[in-house]
């Protein structure tokens, strides 16, 4: 069996390489400058970790990239959409480290479950959203369920996209969206 790309060792752990490795999501969402795109594509050709990251988040980035500003506003929780002041200003101070939730495998499930209810909302996007354009009445969506969960905190909107086939989640990705950015 041939080794996978993730089995290959990373030969360079410089600060520049680590900074470029953080550019996978912005690259896939089209948020990088032309110079940064060229630099990342050169880096991507020789970085198995970034190749795997792009393979993992590419479908979610494509789905999020196809959402217009109106689609994103439609996905917002009604309370947030009706009262834009609910979003904290981007300069709001973060709570002290001692008051933040602990991170780690034991805490991820409660945090994920806690995102719905009073803190966020689960919405199915309209059939017209997405990179493939509007669906006609005779077409079936490509996935059995596309769930978009929105959570407004600290001056940003965080979208979580979960694609499921039956009861199996086949894609789970998050993206932060700065309020007021229309992608233009």
Automatic annotation (TrEMBL):
Residues 10-20, 79-88 have a biased composition (Basic and acidic residues). Gene3D superfamilies: Anti-sigma factor, zinc-finger domain (1.10.10.1320). Residues 27-51 form the Putative zinc-finger domain. It holds the Pfam family zf-HC2. The chain crosses the membrane at residues 159-181. InterPro entries: Anti_sigma_zinc_sf, Znf_put. The keyword rRNA-binding does not apply. This is Putative zinc finger protein. Residues 1-20, 79-141 are annotated as: Disordered. It comes from Micromonospora pisi. Keywords: Membrane, Transcription, Transcription regulation, Transmembrane, Transmembrane helix.
